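Problem 12. The chain below contains 420 residues. Write out its predicted structure in token notation.
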Amino acid sequence: MSVRNKSFTLIEILVAIAVIGILSGLIVVSLKGASSASYDAKRKTDIDALRTVIISYGTTGTYPIEALCNIGSSCSNLTSALIPEYFSSFPVDPLSGYYTYTSEDGTDFTISTVLSNSYTYSYSSSTGFSTTPPSEYASTCAAATIAGVIECAESYDGSYVINKFTLSGTATGTTNWEVPAGVTEVEYLVVGGGGGGGAHGTNSAGGAGGGGGFLTASGFSVSGTISITVGTGGAGGLDPGNAGSNGGDSIFSIITVFGGGGGASNAVAGKNGGSGGGGASRTASHVPGNGTAGQGNNGGAGSSSTGYPSGGGGGAGEVGGTAVAGQAGKGGDGLPSSITGGSPVTYAGGGGGGVYSGATRGLGGAGGGGNGGVYTAGATKVGQPGINNFGGGGGGGAYISGGNGGKGGNGIIIIRYLHP
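Solution.
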């Protein structure tokens, strides 16, 4: 009797392959779900850790002011305040990239992250924890984000959608925003980058940087694709004798807002810009820069009087302070806006002028301006930077070796529109 070799038919092989494929798919889905759950649990734990340490810092007064930033990347004010005294290392999630932090006036703050299902998990010091599903417009904002260059963050105020564009890199960044279907007009706020403060030079404390230009309007017609550019803050002048650089221009569609003017140093006058840079102490550079009509104001003049005080940078709402004997010029105040809802937030303040020993440095103007430097025991001789995402001007450097000017703060663009 002959024995027939048993072999699989083609149909049996195909069935086996199909079964293996189904089982593999189930395993992959199961592992992916477990991985997502693990990452989401980590995100929530990290948010709680950040909440705890920021609240602890807040007991000393107010919270670090940031219009919007990514923790681990662009939260310069937050990280400088909390590290190393409160928090040695910030968690950076491998999936969502960053945790965001916002505190527009220092009295309240919000931290948030995006979960694996695209829901936003956040903590607000005024309302507590919340989980919010993505809106039908969230993809529009997300598509305008370019990693390491420019960030779009979405929030809501009643029936209004708000998109904030800020820099996540160090240079001026440009992106495209697709107008959502049904949206025909928007309200906008455009703030240029703040000017950098001038540095120490021969017989000269550095003039302060001017605040970035400021423009806002409602009922602006939009359609199709809109180009958006956010200006970076101007570099502070380096000792010896270098003036500050102008801030970068911010552009929304056909609207161009100029960066703040750099502060003076030595024989270099304050520079023109959205708001003008302040004049330095040296006679040849007392002259401040001019602001742009409708966007900002002129800087303040410097003086060779007692303490070699320099002039304050102009702000969007006020001329920079003129230096007098023993007192550097204050930065001009910026202007408030309620575009994000709630209490008005002030933007585009000028930096304060720098001085020598025996004089009082100029304070930065409201709206992100940095304080000036001063040569006094226990005080900083370097001008303080303007606050990022407010377009504040950098403070002028002190009249002493190492008195560099402060960097200007990055600008910001905010769009507000009604749900179609």
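Discussion. The mean pLDDT is 87. Students who got a different answer should revisit the alignment rule from Section 12.3.
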